[in-house]
């Protein structure tokens, strides 16, 4: 699916006026008598999502008007203009004013994302109204962000029957091929030979054609080094600690971390950012068979730490641990992990916010400024040192599922930090799913945090 702006050379477009509630009457009174009369007669109100076409004497549209609501209503959501994209009929539109300059890029992106629909298995369509890129907006940048987000959504929305470890590898290879990146894969028994024991342990129960693997993609030869690590659990049954049916229903999205880092990688490479990018994805299926890893097992990770398995349904941190240890061996300038890791994070902040952990104050400052600017909200969570003892079971160095049920997202983050030792590191415990449709964000898979990271990278890495 191509989410792109309409060409200004493709023919005439309909002027689109964006008007908020505070200035609507003054704006209306400044229009032609015919337009004023039409707006009054139809009772148009400039609320978010409301739009109207104003015709000439022949009935052809001469302008479109989009409601932009109030600062209060805009603060309660994102992508206000995208609601207009969904309400306007098919056609080509050009903005002629009304949007603050600081909102142009984000609202233009929202318009493109409103065109997204997941149509692999049934006919579906998003908004059909096309927008000419507004003056002052970098079309290539916005289109790259839209394409990266669409990739993330497609990967998450695809069911595990068609998105297992092999298909996730195929997606990474296709992305690498498109941008001249190098992609290597360590698979099956080779994981043991090359010292990725926990990735192998989690995925070894799956069918042979869904064997566990570590995907390693590299791009760029100059500039600071950035390593992205994404959880690629393509389906999570819970293993021998089997999930109940209701908790298993959305587990196709348990590879949302890998989908998000691939979407972010797409943005970075499409924009040709001056950095050296590495993407590591441990891709597994946490299945049940006679070869499943078991509660009570003790595994030895790549970096030599031993881990007691107290719940096989806490598998994501295990595969991430080996990948983080591997990525840290090169001492990159920044290492980020993204994962649909804990239900505790969702209980804490809900599905809209991207909780993240870091000790790097510079990263915090850059990320939170960027997140606000691009409407990709994040929320910092604490690496709370007193909880370290909760992940130390005594019989092994670490516990993958501390008892008690408290601070589940924090203890998972502390666990992961042990494998990114002495690194500039941040971890994102994302949800990867939009449960309620909203402008530019249909129900289903969704990227979280990627655009905020993208916007923060120039400051974080001094690009």
UniProtKB/TrEMBL annotation:
| Residue stretches spanning the membrane | none
**Keyword tags:** Aminopeptidase, Hydrolase, Manganese, Protease
The organism's place on the tree of life at top rank = Bacteria
Q: Does Manganese show up as a keyword for this record?
A: yes
State one molecular function term (GO).
aminopeptidase activity
- Write down the Pfam families for this protein, in alphabetical order: Peptidase_M17 (PF00883), Peptidase_M17_N_1 (PF21337)
SUPFAM superfamilies given in the database record: Zn-dependent exopeptidases
All residue ranges annotated as the Cytosol aminopeptidase domain in the record: 311-318
Q: Which InterPro entries match?
A: Leucine_aapep/pepB, Macro_dom-like, Peptidase_M17_C, Peptidase_M17_N_1
Concerning PANTHER family, the annotation shows: LEUCINE AMINOPEPTIDASE-RELATED, PEPTIDASE B
Per the record, the similarity remark reads: Belongs to the peptidase M17 family.
Q: What is this protein called?
A: Leucyl aminopeptidase
